[in-house]
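Hey team,

Filing this mostly as a record. A colleague (T.K.) asked me to run one chain through the structure pipeline before their review meeting, and I want the input and output archived in the tracker in case anyone asks later how it was produced. No errors, nothing strange. Just documentation.

Input sequence:
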Amino acid sequence: MASTSAGPETKVEIRRMFAAKREKVFEAWTQREKLEKWMCRFPNNGTRYTAFDARPGGTNVMEVTSQDGTLYKQRVTFREIRPPEKLVFTWAWEKYSPTGEKINEQAETLVTVEFRPRGTFTEVFLTHESFTDAGARADHNKGWNGCFDALEKALEE
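Output structure:
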């Protein structure tokens, strides 16, 4: 049986400061109407949740349609929710062509998000691990940084 060793090519780590209290930042990750404002909200993408159940064992399902019609189905299953400190969830993607043919899928990975109070700011420390290759890691690093940029704007509202 093959195994994936932990290393820089299999893990994303991002630390970001947000000008908002920890409770508000945590809610942006766990309340549907707030999450929908920033998660995978990239220019020319259509994003919608088809399922939302933010509790241990619960699953969120999001569909993102790119400008060319490619559909990405993302599934998150929560393992741990500790308000307002920490979230742990699995993460997986399936990719479909504009005609509906399944192109590929990403193996399930693990995301841990910690929310640390820093005065009137909150430091978010995200670890996304168990990627099978450096390309998947790089794609998710870019994606998470874009999501964090959108989260920063959503928290200003």
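Quick notes for T.K.: Residues 12-156 form a domain with the Alpha-D-Glucose-1,6-Bisphosphate; Chain A, domain 4 fold (CATH 3.30.530.20). The CA atoms of residues 20 and 121 lie 5 Å apart.
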